[in-house]
Backbone:
């Protein structure tokens, strides 16, 4: 387990979690915010994206009161990403996350998760900054991130392909 904060815990992704990921990432209301409704996942796609990839992301499952409810990954930005975002140096981490169990939305768990992960990155990974790049239209996520101490830094035009269109994103950061 990476950390626990009250009823919330984050642990490394396990092989058996692929069934949860396939369930969550084939749910239209979840896909609206993560990956896009035109991009559902089956088990093969989950395997290729989450288990067969050779990337540097640390892939984790979010649990609340012992029940798996979502996914989070963290990674240190490489030089190309730092340059794209306008950073010259420093140990900068990014995260991507979603709560896949919709019944756990609007309960403050997202705020607890982002705050806890940010604390983990600064205390244990010795981050200088933590960054996120939510799509501009995703006001719900942006409000959560701002509540957690993140600030908008830079508009990233046409940064992410989502539902057939390149969408603008905000680069937001915490210097906690």
Residues:
């Amino acid at each position: 387990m990476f950390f626990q904060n009250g009823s919330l815990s984050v642990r490394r992704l396990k092989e058996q979690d692929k069934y949860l990921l396939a369930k969550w990432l084939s749910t239209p209301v979840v896909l609206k915010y993560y990956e896009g409704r035109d991009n559902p996942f089956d088990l093969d796609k989950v395997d290729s994206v989450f288990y067969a990839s050779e990337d540097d992301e640390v892939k984790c499952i979010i649990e609340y009161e012992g029940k798996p409810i979502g996914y989070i990954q963290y990674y240190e930005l490489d030089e190309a990403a730092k340059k794209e975002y306008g950073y010259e140096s420093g140990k900068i981490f990014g995260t991507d996350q979603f709560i896949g169990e919709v019944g756990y939305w609007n309960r403050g768990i997202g705020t607890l998760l982002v705050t806890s992960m940010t604390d983990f990155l600064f205390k244990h990974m010795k981050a200088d900054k933590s960054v996120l790049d939510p799509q501009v239209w995703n006001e719900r996520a942006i409000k959560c991130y701002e509540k957690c101490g993140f600030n908008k830094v830079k508009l990233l035009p046409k940064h992410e392909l989502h539902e057939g269109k390149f969408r603008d994103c905000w680069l937001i950061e915490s210097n906690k």
